[in-house]
Fold SCPDL oxidoreductase.
Amino acid sequence: YRYFGEPVVEACVENGASCIDISGEPQFLEGMYLKYNEKAAEKGVYVIGSCGFDSIPADMGVLYTRDKLKGTLTGVESFLMVKSGPEGACIHDGTWKSAVYGLADQDNLRKLRKKIGYAPVPVVGAKLKRRGLVFYNQEFKQYSIPFMGSDVSVVKRSQRYLHRELQETPVQYGAYVNIGGLGSVIKLMFAGILFLLLVKFSFGRKLLIKYPEFFSAGRFTKKGPTQKQMDGTSFTMTFFGEGYSEGQDPQNGKPNVKICTEVKGPEPGYVATPIAMVQAAVSLLEDAACLPK
């Protein structure tokens, strides 16, 4: 999307058509918001990003958790677990390329956000603590790391909108992925260090792009997953929420209620994503009266 997404957005807006994408790239998503939000509003059309696994399960999961809590939800952490069958699992290298280019361009993302000038969202209740780069998760009895996709970016933008336009209580959010035991941590650390070193330099990025299977230990390939791999893969996203019971002032004291919810689905990248995208399109067509004007 970084290189090929904008012409589609521009053409849709200019010709009065709404646009849905499955991008998981925060820089593209927020860049399109900056450039086309006002034009889209003038045309009466919608540019709706991240309508795939990134980031409908996360965004809808937070809202679902909020609706199920009897009280005021103030903080949520999500933990992604992907299970594969005997054939294993892999991801097409297009996602790998997005990660390479995205990490190499972090400074421009920060500049973009300054240019947008997001109004700060107030922290309601106890501040949600940030986890480390690698930590042991007592709930799952395995190690977890921050999720590197667009979930946090998308959820924050949704919460900002709901607070600004509908005066709803904003929910703090953190996204993580479970990676397994200590052996997985050691492998990931070596791969991560090598990735971060190479991504800083042009020749390093070329190597990463040319040999995704080697540098990702087979997790990313140019062919993508087989049908058997997709059939045997599924995901579970678990949400741990905290907040304040009905009648309790979130500005006073620590959270006194907790909630746990789950979003489950089939293989995330190539089965769950098209399901989510098509349902987003159906909602756009059938529920237009419920959308922001």
About this structure: The mean pLDDT is 93. The beta strands are 19-20, 47-48, 71-83, 91-92, 135-137, 142-146, 172-180, 220-221, 234-245, 257-266. The chain is about 45% helix and 20% strand. The CA atoms of residues 163 and 169 lie 6 Å apart.
